[in-house]
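To start, one record:
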Amino acid sequence: MLTRRKFVAAAAASLTVGQHAVCGAMLSSVSADAAVLSGQSRLADGRLLGWTQFGDPRGYPIFYFNGLPTSRLEGALLADAAARLGCRLVSIDRPGIGLSSCQPGRTLVDWSNDVRCLTSGWEAGREYSILGFSSGGPYAAQCALSLSDTGLHRVAIVSGVPHPDFGCLPAGEGERGLALVRRWPNLARRLLKFYSRRAARRPVLVAKRVMRRMAPADRCLLQQSYFRDLFLRAFLEATRAGPDGVIQDALLLTANWRIPLEQIDLPVSIWHGACDRTISVEASHALARRVPGSQLQIISGQGHVSILHRFGSEILQWLIA
């Protein structure tokens, strides 16, 4: 039986669905070669999309979709890898999060339309790829279906949340958190406000609570002050305009995606840590069975976030190949 006490515990644990970020200028642990630039782009309907660019500004473009409850700044985790490989990694805030305007009633298709608009202005006629991490996975899948006519080359989905139609899969902490947000959205909104204030005042305490239920590889990563600070900054940036954008995103992920995965005909690579406690590895097995010709990489010993940190270069290399 789901209770409010269980909801609070799961909501705290679900803060691990997406990690790490850098605010504005470069931090000391991001190399001088990994240039950071933030901005906003205006869409046809007048809304703004916030973005942060990492790596080589003239390099191969890769659009990065972050997890929850973080923001575009999460892409800093791949900044050095992007610079080494000559990639231009552009991490985008979804509507209502960070620097992006809200969009009531939005859908996954709406997001692919936003990306279409963005690429038509930035990369018209140029090949590019997409990387969706955790909660960004469904958005990447929608783009794989909808944007094959725009120069989209390859799509990678890392630690992706499961499609609601996948049935009764083992649930990780993130999946339980999403389900509980769907049941008690108003309570989730209040809790998100509470954790935002607590993270600003007592960041170490919040980080320790988040790490309790994470995989050992993820805990090892977040025990390093640099990555812990990045996570906390990312969380605060995601809720800078309030919790509604994050809650809307979570609710959207628990609804019917309406993505005919069997119709995707672009190369898709699916990555998941075998020890992930946030999103069950079975979610990626199920996704690979539904997407024709997809490649599945299950990495021993890795967790939800550590796989992106440890194998980021390999993932980016596949995207630009």
Q: What stands out?
A: The chain has 13 helices and eight strands. The CA atoms of residues 287 and 316 lie 20 Å apart.
